[in-house]
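job 3f2a | input accepted
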Amino acid sequence: MTNYDILLKQATELLESEPWAVSALSNLSSLIMQSLADLNWAGFYLVRNGVLTVGPFQGKPACIHIQPGKGVCGTALLKDETILVPDVHLFPGHIACDSASNSEIVVPIHSNGRVIAVLDIDSPLTNRFSAHDKAGLEKLVRLLEEKLVW
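job 3f2a | predicted structure (150 res):
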């Protein structure tokens, strides 16, 4: 089980050393990939011209653009809520950027009261993400919302 207290302390240090979004998100995607077990993708999609556009990440090449309401990321954007999917193959409209992904969690990131990005994490295992992960990743995103300079 991931110790999110340690992850948050490490993320805080990274954000204090460089709060600019591009650098911070690059390091945070790496931190997440190294800190959580059984992942095959960890990164961010940024809202650009009303569409999610791939940002800093760790993993195989990703889908570049995702429309609001499409796939897990687009659904999280549209609903403005964390989406935890135990089996992506059962999620209507799932976008298979990596055929090895079997479960996913997506957390919206806000600035000035609107969603500006999402944190997206995939695993090759089904049922990889739990309520514990959801709570820990939502705390991480709140930290990002507070500390990042866009």
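job 3f2a | The two ends are 32 Å apart (CA to CA).
job 3f2a | closed
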